[in-house]
Every structure is written in C-alpha cells, then in structure tokens.
Write a structure and sequence with these properties.
Number of strands: 11
Low-confidence stretches: none
Distance between the termini: 55 Å
Number of domains: 3
Strand content: 15-25%
Domain HTH lysR-type: 5-62
Number of helices: 11
InterPro entries: HTH-type_LysR_regulators, LysR_HTH_N, LysR_subst-bd, WH-like_DNA-bd_sf, WH_DNA-bd_sf
CATH architecture of the largest domain: 3-Layer(aba) Sandwich
Keywords: DNA-binding, Transcription, Transcription regulation
Order of helices and strands: HHHEEHEHHEHEEEHEHEHEEH
Shape: globular
Mean pLDDT: 78
CATH superfamily of the largest domain: Periplasmic binding protein-like II
Radius of gyration: 23 Å
Helix content: 40-55%
Protein name: LysR family transcriptional regulator
CATH topology of the largest domain: D-Maltodextrin-Binding Protein, domain 2
CATH class of the largest domain: Alpha Beta
Family: Belongs to the LysR transcriptional regulatory family.
C-alpha cells in the first residue's frame, strides 16, 4: 500500500500551479528547480498519473492534475488552518476567527461588532478580509474564511452554504458638500464605486445610461480609495446612507436627489454548511445580528 503524499508536497504543488512555472516557484519558495521537479515526480508516482504538462512557457494541469488540484485545495487549507489553530491554543490559548466582508458591512458594522466580540473573547485573533461578493464566497468554500458578510448578485449561487439575511441598506448619490450639485451636468461628472459592491455595480449600469452617458467611471478596491477620490478630486459616489450618516463629520458629503435613483440592497451573513460551527463563529454572528 502506497503512503499518503506529504502535506508539504501538496502545498508546493499548489504553489507551482499558482505561479505557472517551476522557475517562478523556485524564486518564491527559495527551493531549487531540481528539487521541485523531484517533488512533482514523487507526487505523480504516488498518484499513478501525470499531473503537470511542462513546456518552455511554463506548466499547466493535465485533466487528472486539474481534478487532483480541486480536491486537495480545500483539504490542505482546512488542515493547515486546523494545525495553526491547535498550535495557537496550545502555546498561547489563542483562538482564530476569519471574517470576510464587503465594503459597507465592514465600515458600518464591524467596528462595533469587534468591540463587543473582543470583550467576550479577548484571546481570539480576528482576521478581516475585504473582497467582492464573488471572492468572499469562493474563499468561504475554500475554507479560507469562517463567515462572510456581503450582498449577493444574481450570478452567485449559495446552495451549498448557509445564508442569513443581515441588513438592508439604501444607496444614494453623494458629492463633496463644498460643490454645487447642479453646477456640473451629470454627463460631465466623474463617478466612483467600490469594486466590492455588487449592488453598486448593478446600479451604475442602470443609472449611467439614463443620467451620465459620457461620464467617467472609476472602480476602487476599498472604501478609503473611494473616499479619497470623492473628497480630493470631486468624484460622485454611490454610497449607502448608513455610511454617510455614520462618518459624515469626516466625509462632509451631501446627497444629490435624483428621482430616477431608488436602490436598496440586502446583505447576508454566509457560512459553510457544516455539521458543527465553532462557538466563536456563532457568537460573532449573534453579535452582528444584534447591531
């Protein structure tokens, strides 16, 4: 009976696939290319099939390699997380919670939720990831997150996940309060929207053809970048009323009333559909739901 592949070999295999070549993987991991070749050969002998096709342009997965990669990706992430968690509990008593959020829940609700959560779990290390809904759901499925909070567009399927409705937010158009709302036609305005807001993207697609056919639209990776463009360069932003109400003393924004604009979005708390969910995850969800 063949022995199981080493975890280190599986993670190296994943890095090779991610980097696309032995050369790039060698530089990233500081492991010689002959060693990487030997590891792949041992894996292929263990599996009994070729996993990678190599060429001058790099490596690509074979059909068997692609199936193998999909199976081990989640498994290795889960195993690595379990090892880190047990080590932390043994050495320091720490526990870990990994939370993914899109921009609006992160800015509006996370600070208060963390404050309350830390009072109950002072030795828990919380990692927060900001991403768009598609990225958060993918990370959740891949066991890189314990829960996610985001809106859901039509293209996202969560049939294998548990979703709980969290909050409904109202979106409006805002611009710096020192600008005249009617001084500049919509067609000439510059628009900005965080890439993490699926709802905002859908709204922009609907609004721009009606109100700003020739407007310039910029996407940002964070709320901070959005705020900088609005504050410093006069961009018009699609934001939730909740964010503006909470931070308007720093933002100094004013709403632009537009009859054609009526946008609201439901945000959801999402977790993996597992028999048991860690207590700290459930407690964090309860705190969020109470916000």
């Amino acid at each position: 009976m063949k022995s199981m592949p080493k975890l280190s070999h599986l993670t190296i295999f994943k890095e090779i696939v991610s980097c696309g070549s032995l050369h790039e993987t060698s530089k990233k991991l500081a492991i010689s290319q002959p060693t990487l070749s030997r590891i792949i050969k041992e894996l292929e002998e263990n599996i009994g099939s070729r996993l990678l096709e190599r060429s001058n342009r790099g490596v690509k997965l074979t059909e068997v390699g692609e199936a193998f990669y999909k199976r081990i990706d989640t498994i290795t992430n889960e195993l690595r997380n379990a090892i880190y968690e047990i080590r932390g509990m043994k050495e320091t008593g720490e526990k870990f919670l990994r939370v993914g959020m899109s921009t609006y829940p992160l800015v509006c609700y996370l600070p208060e939720a963390l404050k309350s959560f830390n009072q109950h779990y002072p030795q828990t290390r919380v990692t927060v990831v900001e991403d768009n809904p598609e990225g958060l759901v993918a990370k959740l499925r891949n066991s890189e997150l314990d829960l996610a909070v985001c809106s859901l567009s039509e293209g996202i399927s969560c049939v294998d996940l548990v979703t709980e409705e969290f909050k409904c937010e109202k979106f409006s158009l805002y611009q710096p309060s020192n600008q005249d709302a009617v001084a500049q036609p919509f067609d000439e305005k510059k628009w900005v929207i965080p890439r993490s807001s699926a709802v905002g993207h859908a709204a922009i697609k609907d609004i721009v053809p009606q109100l700003a056919q020739h407007a310039s639209i910029v996407e940002t990776d964070s709320f901070l970048a959005t705020w900088c463009l609005v504050k410093q360069q006069g961009y018009l932003a699609l934001l939730t009323d909740q964010i503006v109400a909470q931070y308007n003393s720093q933002l100094s924004l004013k709403k632009i009333e537009v009859d054609e604009l009526d946008i609201s979005a439901n945000f959801y708390i999402i977790k993996r559909n597992e028999p048991t969910t860690p207590v700290i995850t459930n407690d964090f969800i309860e705190i969020l739901m109470a916000m």
